[in-house]
Specification:
- The complex is a heterodimer of chains A (369) and B (280).
- Chain A has 369 residues and is an alpha+beta fold.
- In chain A, helix 8 crosses helix 11 and helix 9 crosses helix 11.
- Chain A folds into two domains: 210 residues, no CATH class; 104 residues, no CATH class.
- Helix content of chain A is 33%, strand content 25%.
- In chain A, a hairpin with a 2-residue loop joins strand 4 and strand 5.
- Chain B contains seven helices and 13 strands.
- Chain B has 280 residues and is α/β, with parallel strands linked by helices.
- The N terminus of chain B is likely disordered.
- Chain B has two domains: 99 residues, Translation factors (Elongation Factor Tu (Ef-tu), domain 3, Beta Barrel); 129 residues, Nucleotide-binding domain of ferredoxin-NADP reductase (FNR) module (Rossmann fold), CATH 3.40.50.80.
- In chain B, the strands form two sheets. In chain B, strands 10-9-8-7-11-12-13 form a seven-stranded mixed β-sheet, with helices on both faces. Chain B has a six-stranded antiparallel β-sheet with strand order 4-3-6-1-2-5.
- Chain B starts with a helix and ends with a helix.
- In chain B, helix 5 links the parallel strand 11 and strand 12.
- Classes of the chains: A alpha+beta (369), B alpha/beta (280).
- Chains A and B meet through strand 6, strand 7, strand 12, strand 14 and helix 11 of A and loops of B.
Chain lengths: 369, 280
Amino acid sequence: MPDSQAVIDRKDLGAMFALLAEEGYQPVAPRVHDGAVLYAPVSGPDDLPKGIGDEEEGGHYRLTERGDAKLFGHTKPVQGLKAHLYPARQKLWSAERAGHGFRIVKDQDPAPRYAFIGVRACELSAMLIQDKVFEGGPYADKGYAERRRNCFLVVVTCDHAGAACFCASQQTGPDVSEGYDLKLAEIIDGGRHVFLAEAGSEKGRALLDRLPRQAASEADLKAASDQRQAAAAGQKRAMISGVAELLAAQLESRHWEDVAKRCMSCGNCTMVCPTCFCSTMEDATDLSGLKAERTRKWDSCFSIDYSYIHGGSVRNSGASRYRQWMTHKLSHWVKQFGVSGCVGCGRCIIWCPVGIDITAEAKAILKGA
Amino acid sequence: MSAALQQADPMDVRPFRIEKIRKELSDVFTMELVPEGGGSFAFKPGQFNMIYSFGAGEVPISISGDPADPSKLIHTIRRVGAATEAIGNLSEGMAVGIRGPFGNPWPVEEVFGSDLVILAGGLGLAPLRPAIYMALAHRQRFGKVVLLYGSRSPSEILFPKELEKWRGRFDTKVRVTVDRAEPGWSGHVGVVTKLVKGAGFDPLHTVAFVCGPEIMMRYGIQALEDSGIDRTGIYVSMERNMKCGIGLCGHCQWGAPFVCKDGPVFRFDEVADAFKVREL
C-alpha cells in the first residue's frame, strides 16, 4: 500500500496520541515502571521510555541506557496485550439473596477503548492467536470480543533482537503484514528522528491522513527494512522445526523428569506468556452472606489445584505439569486452534526464576527421542 | 433450552428452584430442579451443567434425568468437595444456579440398529441414565440391550429400584455386581468388567457406552475389545476439572481435546492413546 505510507516527524508524534484520545481511545503504550517497561496508560510521547533499552536472558531482565533518543528502543514490555484485553482479575457478576433463592446482577460497564501504541510483531501475533481462542470456537468470550473490537493497534517494528527472542523461527516476526491499524518504524539518522508509517486498515489510513506528514523516501524504506533484517538476524535462539509432531510423540520422554528437577512450578511462564489464556473462577460472599460475587482470575497449569477432581489432582508431578504447559503451547495448540501457541517472544525464558529455556528443552527432547 | 437462552452469554447463571431432593446413598443425592420463573430445559443424554451454589462455587455435573421430559432438570450428585457439599446442604425450595447444557452427548439415535451395551461403574450410572431412558423409549430400534453395572458394595448400588424395574423387562438384560458382598447379597461378586463375558451381544454389531472411574473404564474397554467390539463402537464419558464448561478456561484439557466441548463423551478410538498416558 504505497499510498498509505508516509513519514511522521518525531515532533508530530504527539498529534497521533491527541487524535486517538479525541476519538475516545485511551492510549496505552510502553512506559517505565518499577525498573521495567510495561504497557500502561500514557498521555503522550513524553511518557514513553526515551533512550531506554533492556537486557534479557534466562532469569534475567534489566533496563539499560541506550544513549540515544529512541522512544521504542527496548525489545518488548514485560507483558503483551493480554492483561488489557483479558484482565488478570475480572468481576463477571454479583448475586443477591432474594427470598429462598438469589438474583444475578450483571454490571454493564462499557468495555474500554484502548489504543495500543508500540505493539511488537510477536505481541500482535499473540493477540491474533488469542482471537482464535476466545472468539473462534463454539462459544466466544464476550468481554474479550468487545475489548478487542474496540481497540486501535499501532505496531512499532523492532530494530534489534533481544537475547531471548526467537520470533523469526516461529514466523511471527519481526515483520507483520496484517492485523494492525498503523505500523511504525522508528528511524534516527543524525539529527533526523522520524517514524515511517504504513496504514494497515481503513481506521489507520484515516488517522494517518489527519497527521502532519511527508512522503516516505527510498532511504526511509531501506532504513526500516534494514532494521527488520537486523532484528531477524540478531536472534540467538530458535525453536526447532517439527516441534509439534515431536512433542506429540514424546509424551513419555524421560526428559520431562529432567526439566521437573529444575522447574519450580511457579507459573511465571504462564503469567507472562502472551497467549496463555487459562482462568479460574472465584466465588465469594460478603460478610453478611447476602451478596455474592464471581470473579474470573488468570490461572496456571503449574498449580496442583488446576487439575483437581474429587479424590485428587490429575497432574501431581512437576514433570506432568511442565509437560502439560509445553506440549499444549507447542503441539496440542496446533490441533486445537490451527496455529502454534508460541510466538517466540522469549518471556517465559526471561521470567523463569531458574532460566528454563523452552527452545533448549525442545532440543533436548529431540536429542533424546 | 429456548432460542433466547441459547443466545444468552454462556457465562450467565440461571437460577433454578429445587423442587425435590432424594437421598440415594449415604453421600449421594438427586435434585429435581425447575427454572425460576418457568420454562423448560431440553438436553441430550450425556450432557452436563455447571451447577452453582450461592457464593460457594460451581461444579460440572452430568444430567441424570430423562431427555424426553424437559419440564424438570435432574442431577445426581456425590458430596465430595466444598461446592458439592454446599449444594447438598440446600433444602427444597431454595435455588441453585445453572449454566448449560454443555458437551457432546451419547450418540443414542446415531446407533439405532445395533446391540447396545451399557457398562457403568459406581456413580457413572448417573450420566448414563438419560441414555438408558432414551434407549428404552426406543427399545424396538435396538437389537439386544444389556446393562452391566458394578458398585463397591450392595449398599452403594445407585438407583436400585430402577435397576430392578429394568431387569423386569423381558427385552433388556441387566446384570449387577459388587466388589464386596454383604450379608443378604446373592448376586454377582467381582469387578464389573467380568460381566462382559457371556453378556450375549453380537460384538460385530454392538455399540458400548462406558462410564465410571477411569481405572474401571480402562479395564472395561479392554474386556469389551477382548469380546470383539471394535474400538470405534465404544464411547466413554470423561471427567476433568472445569471452570467454564465452554472451552475457554483450559482446565479440562486431556491432550489436545477439551473434555467440556470435545467431550465429555468421546468415541474411544479418538482418545485411546490419551488413556495410556499417566497424568496427561
